[in-house]
Amino acid sequence: MRAWMQLVLAIGVEIVGTSLLKVSAGFSHLWLGMAGMLLYGLAIFSFSLALRKIPLSVGYAIWAGVGTAITGLVGIWAFGEVLTGPKTVGFMAIIIGVILLNMPVKASSPRPARRWRSRTTRE
Prior knowledge:
Elements: H1 2-23, H2 30-50, H3 56-79, H4 85-101
Helix pairs in contact: 1-2, 1-3, 3-4
């Protein structure tokens, strides 16, 4: 449950950070841009903690998909962007994709996790 809360935090912080980058107008307002960058760092840190328990494929799909959809809605609500037919279809595709990725699947035999080693490590 904690990993899912960290993923939600990562998504929320990234959305706020992205919105601050928009408001910073290309870093014309330096402090807003810097705050946005700081929040991006916090989002990545929180996401990395979530990935301790959540599979990478599922975690990244949710992070990217939900973050993209909500950021798109923030753009429409806060910045006056227009919701077009193709955008609506795109939002629906994101939602359907996240649902499909979270559906349980019965695997015959799970592959063992691959452990990464440094190339300089000698056996």
